[in-house]
Every structure is written in C-alpha cells, then in structure tokens.
Design a protein that fits this description.
Blueprint: H1 5-137, H2 142-155
Helix pairs in contact: 1-2
Length: 156
C-alpha cells in the first residue's frame, strides 16, 4: 500500500468532517435526543404517578364500598331490630287486648249469671208465695199438701 498525498488529503478532510460534525451537527442532535429522553422520562414518571394514583383511587373506592356495606348492614340490622320490636309490641298489645276482652267477658258472664240467679230467686220466691197461698187457702190435708208440693216441684 502506498501512502500518497490523496490519502493524506482524505484523512485531513475526514478529520475536518469529524470536527465539524462534533462541533456543529452533533450538539443539536444530542440536544434533541436529551429532550426526547427527558420527555420519555417525564412520560414514564407520569405513568408511574398515574399508576399510583389509580392504586390509591382503587383503595379509596374499596374503603368507601366497605364503609357503605357496613352502613347497609347496620341499617338492615336496625331495621330487623325495629321490625322485631314492632312485632313484640303488637304481640304485647294483642295479649293485653285479649286479657281485657277476657276480663270484660268474664264480668259480663258474671253479671248475666247474677241476673239469672236473681231472676231465678224471684221466680222461686213467687212460686213459694203461690204455694203458700195455695196451702193457706185450702184446707189442711196432708195428702192435699203432698199433691200441692208435687205440683210445685213440677213447676220449678
């Protein structure tokens, strides 16, 4: 291989091209590449923040749902307690009303029994008076008296 002036000229032109490229061409390209790398890094950081925000939002939603479920469970439990209390109150009122009705019915039956006894006493008294009148009006005769008493028993 011969080293001649063309090869030296080519080496000088190549070195000048490399220097020119390093001084004028390379910095704008590096600047654009750095800007793009920064943009990508910002995008990745934003994606990471978004992922973290999404995870926090999911956690908050889960917490809110859990709280809502607990409130619903509490409300259902309160409603069931209230329903049981209403049923218990209704049973108590019904038993009180039944006791009152029973007491009223017993009082009515007792009153009717007293009326019937009083009416029966009145009838017996009337029959006794009639029997006494019949005995006093008729002559004193034991067989007659026995007949009158038999008739009186049949009337009773």
């Amino acid at each position: 291989m011969n080293i001649n002036a063309t090869l030296i000229a080519q080496i000088l032109v190549f070195v000048m091209l490399v220097l020119f490229t390093m001084k004028f061409v390379w910095p704008p390209i590096v600047k654009v590449l750095d800007a793009r790398a920064d943009k990508i890094a910002e995008g990745l950081a934003a994606a990471e923040r978004g992922k973290n925000d999404f995870a926090q939002a999911e956690k908050r939603v889960a917490d809110i749902l859990a709280e809502g479920r607990s409130q619903v469970s509490e409300m259902v439990a309160n409603a069931e307690k209230r329903a049981a209390q209403i049923v218990e109150d209704a049973k108590t009122q019904a038993s009180e009303e039944a006791a009152r009705i029973m007491a009223q019915a017993k009082a009515d039956v007792e009153q009717e029994a007293n009326r019937a006894r009083e009416a029966l006493r009145q009838q017996v008294a009337d029959l006794v008076v009639k029997g006494a009148e019949s005995i006093l009006r008729s002559e004193v005769n034991p067989s007659r008296h026995a007949d009158l008493l038999a008739n009186l028993k049949q009337e009773l």
